[in-house]
Amino acid sequence: MMIEVVVLGCFLTCAGANGVADVVLSCTLVEEGAGLGGMGGGALFTRTPATLVLRDVTVAPDESLEALTPFVPPSVPDPDAILLEAKVSSPEIPNVDVLLHADCNEQEVMCEISVYSPRGSQGSSDPTYFMVSLNVEGIDFSTALILQTLTVEKDQSTLIQNKLGLPLSQSGTLLTEVIFLVFSHIKSVTAPLRGDVVLNCGFRQPEIPLAQEVDIEWRLQHRGKGRKVLDMKTRLDDAEGSTVVHAGRKGSSMDVAQVVSEGDASVTLAKLKVLDEGTYICTVSIGHFHAQQIIQLHVIQPPQVSLSEEKLVLDATSRQTLSCHCTKYYPLDAKMEWSSLSPTDTEPVVFPDQGSLSSHRQHGDGTYSLSSHLTVPSTVSPGTKITCRVTHPALSTPLSVSLVVEGPQTDSYWWVLGFLIITLLFFYQVMR
């Protein structure tokens, strides 16, 4: 489901000294419309401004309730306004306190609401259900809520919400309660190649469970292709022999005890490969209800960098080439740069001619290698330090390798000639 960034409404309403508050969010009601007639297009979506009031949000003991602005319902109920009022005392939303401070921290809240149809439902149902997707910009807060409408006693004065056709409370709100939620404490995670990673996902339901059976599925989507990573079916009453696990990826696992006791549906992936990179979808199903969370996994591997020569002696009679090898890295984004620092310079100078690059070579494990070849100018002074500098997303700071240019050895010919003469004289004496 696409999340739309919307303007964060003014919120926070104090609820007395009992340590709870109300959060008011500006949201968007998303409805699927007709397709593009005659053009073969997909469904269109209509978006209508809506407001969500989360009631009884737990406030930390050190939180000042005096600074919270009370939520005041409209004095005259408006049947055109979409104003959802949701009780969240049970189940509670993990880390919901970030919503209390998002406005002060200038963080945008993304809130999208849509009508939800439970599995097996036949058309219109009573009660009505809504799916709410909440995200906060810049921090790892992501939650999908399922709301169930509460019964409103109808009489001649009861207003009906015009767009949804649902009865409103006397204050003009749609009364609902949170009955199920799926959340994640991470939106994106980066892990090293051949390392292990935990992808976080959890769920909550009321104290009186919707059902005892829970089905958790992890899927990977990458470059238009999808595959199942892990599927677990178990019972929350921990009945013996009730757990069934199918692992589509070797080295993937979940902790059944954590699922039952904590609602922790996190998956562990061991010995990561490049092929493990992509978008992971955690789907938790309980009874007729299901909700999802999406997590991006990025795999990285820092490069190994080396020079083709351990030392470089200037030779005025031929051109010399120095190669820098950047090997076994992932992802592809590697940059190589040559610079020099002569004995008279105080700062390195980038070579105007950066030489030539080889094509990227991909290895069997998905990593890449690249080489840069520099023709060393004959004008380089002895004692000059030549450096190859590599930048890559897996490196916190660039990686450099260097060597110092040595001057030509002009008397090397006479050393060789003298060595040969001495050797010949030695054998001559032995043979006599």
Could you characterize what this model shows?
The chain is mainly β and 432 residues long. It is 7% helix and 44% strand. Strands 2-3-4-8-7-6-5 form a 7-stranded mixed barrel. The longest helix has 20 residues. The N terminus is likely disordered.
Q: What descriptors fit this protein?
A:
432 residues, 7% helix, mainly beta, elongated, single chain, 6-stranded mixed beta sheet, disordered N terminus, 7-stranded mixed beta barrel
Q: Give the beta-strand count.
A: 28
Largest sheet: 7 strands, mixed, barrel
Q: In angstroms, what is the radius of gyration?
A: 33 Å
* Spans of at least 5 consecutive residues with low confidence: 1-17
Proportion of beta-strand residues: 35-45%
Describe the oligomeric state of these chains in a short phrase. Answer: single chain
Number of H- or I-type helical stretches: 3
Secondary-structure-derived class = mainly beta
| Cα separation of the termini | 97 Å
Helix fraction bin: under 10%
Which of globular, elongated, flat, extended, rod-shaped describes the shape?
elongated
* Strand order of the biggest β-sheet: 2-3-4-8-7-6-5
Whole-number mean pLDDT = 86
